[in-house]
Design goal:
By secondary structure, the chain is α+β, with helices and mostly antiparallel strands. It is built from five helices and three strands; from the N terminus they run βββααααα. β1 and β2 form a beta hairpin. α1 (about 25-40) packs antiparallel against α2 (about 45-60) and α1 (about 25-40) packs across α4 (about 75-100).
Length: about 110
């Protein structure tokens, strides 16, 4: 998974030799990413947690591929880094926007 600069950052994933580009994430994707990071113990991950993370990526990419496409088309050592890059890509866009807000304390 990588982020490409094309006017804005696009998340892209390659599965089975085919590239998929995620549409611009909606606000719900940010909420879901935060919810996932709150619920999942990444040091003691269960199969259901992994399925939820992979399903989140499928939803993030607007169902251009399936959960099975990720499990069968992504190398094992790239699975967790890809999942984390997607989550960070969504939450990171929000963080960058929040940094643009003026500091309320400085105005007082």
């Amino acid at each position: 998974m990588n982020l490409k600069e094309e006017g804005r950052k696009h998340m892209q994933i390659t599965l089975g030799g085919k590239n998929f580009i995620a549409p611009a994430p909606k606000a719900r994707a940010v909420r879901k990413a935060i919810e996932i990071t709150e619920k999942v113990d990444f040091n003691n991950m269960k199969a259901a947690d992994l399925d939820n993370l992979v399903d989140y990526i499928v939803q993030l990419f607007d169902k251009q591929f399936t959960i099975d496409d990720i499990y069968d088309g992504l190398e094992a050592d790239k699975l967790i880094p890809t999942l984390m890059a997607c989550i960070n890509g969504v939450v990171g866009t929000m963080g960058a926007k929040l940094e643009q807000f003026p500091n309320a304390q400085a105005e007082k």
